[in-house]
Design a protein that fits this description.
It comes from Pontibacter amylolyticus. The chain is about 50% helix and about 15% strand. The protein contains twelve helices and eight strands. Residues about 5-15 have low confidence and may be disordered. The chain has about 325 residues and is of the alpha/beta class. It has helices spanning about 5-20, 60-65, 95-105, 120-130, 150-155, 160-170, 175-190, 220-235, 255, 260-300, 305-320, 325-330; strands at about 25-30, 35-40, 45-50, 70-75, 115-120, 135-140, 205-210, 240-245. It has two domains: about 5-280, Rossmann fold (3-Layer(aba) Sandwich); about 280-330. The radius of gyration is 24 Å and the shape is elongated.
């Protein structure tokens, strides 16, 4: 075992231990089944983690243990993973999004939310963000799945693309086959169910382009990696604020191999969201003050100088602006 691998395992172990010590997991009923979840930390934003296919909340241990120092965090295991009960209904993408939405309501989580999704989890947070744009103030995509992946791989090499799908399907445990089939249907259609447009919020996309000596999948060959990167480039292009981070030092599980990249991405998004909130509040105050000054102008034209002076004074006092800002406005 390499030194790097040993350190990563230690990080993962201690991250989960710190997270477990912060607060115990609990089971939350979301209708006809219950999900395992954990809440910890404190702060203005709640960072919600969505795991990739077939993995539970523990994969985020070494990321969440750091993020909860300045933020609230919520992690959970999707239906059928970890200690979460299976969904008695078909485990489709729509069902997963409904579970997440219900869990957030049942756990009484308050926005603003920062959503973090890995791989298939990206589909889920995209749908939730589109359905609840006012609640979501930032997005972090960790090597996200893309609905056009199979379509583009087939364009590059149809035979290898089909072989990839067959090989990946052969690895899927029976309890995850239903969700795997739902994902495959998305890849075949090359489109996600319509949930609406994503909100324009600070966004970071993390992409792995790691080279492999003997790639087992076409997706991991140079041509497949090029397809993957181009899809992520295209996906990120819809956002006006954020960053697209490329790493060649870790594989698909960036959050486990390079957790610092995910931690930094979350920090970046939180900082940008905070600045955007301050900007919007400033604009709101300026608009209110503009209305006050317009009313004062009306009073001045009516030769009601004392009324004009009073509402301007009250408007400035209530604006919350400091002396320097008020002088600048003047």
């Amino acid at each position: 075992m390499t030194i790097k691998r040993t350190l990563l395992l230690l990080l993962f172990f201690f991250g989960n231990m710190l997270l477990a010590n912060a607060q115990q997991t609990k089971m939350v009923n979301v209708g006809d089944h219950s999900l395992e979840m954990i809440q910890a930390g404190d702060g203005e934003y709640t960072v919600i983690f969505e795991s990739g296919f077939g993995t539970d909340y523990k994969v985020w241990g070494n990321v969440a243990a750091e993020v909860l120092n300045l933020n609230q965090v919520m992690l959970y295991s999707r239906a059928g993973t970890g200690k979460s009960e299976p969904n008695p209904k078909p485990q489709t993408l729509e069902a997963a999004v409904k579970d997440l939405s219900t869990l957030i309501d049942q756990a009484n989580l308050k926005p603003p939310f920062i959503l973090v999704g890995h791989s298939y989890g990206a589909f889920i947070i995209r749908a939730y963000a589109a359905q609840h744009p006012d609640k979501v103030k930032g997005l972090v995509f960790v090597d996200p799945a893309h609905e056009k992946m199979m379509q583009e791989l087939k364009k590059a090499d149809p035979a290898k693309a089909v072989k990839d799908r067959e090989l990946q399907n052969s690895f899927v445990p029976d309890k995850f086959k239903q969700e795997s089939e739902a994902i495959n249907r998305i890849f075949e259609k090359a489109v996600l169910p319509d949930s609406g447009k994503l909100p324009q919020v600070p966004t970071v996309v993390l992409t792995s382009v790691q080279k492999r000596a003997n790639p087992e999948l076409f997706l991991h060959e140079p041509k497949g990696v090029e397809v993957w990167r181009n899809l992520h480039n295209d996906f990120f292009s819809q956002f006006t604020s954020g960053a697209h981070v490329i790493t060649a030092n870790s594989g698909h599980n960036i959050h486990r191999e390079e957790p610092e990249l995910v931690i930094n991405a979350i920090r970046q998004v939180v900082q940008a969201a905070t600045k955007e909130k301050a900007r919007q509040e400033h604009e709101g105050k300026m608009l209110a003050l503009d209305n006050t000054l317009a009313q004062a102008d009306t009073y001045l034209k009516q030769r009601k100088e004392s009324k004009a002076e009073a509402i301007v004074f009250d408007g400035l006092k209530g604006s919350g602006f400091g002396e320097r800002t008020i002088n600048t406005i003047a």
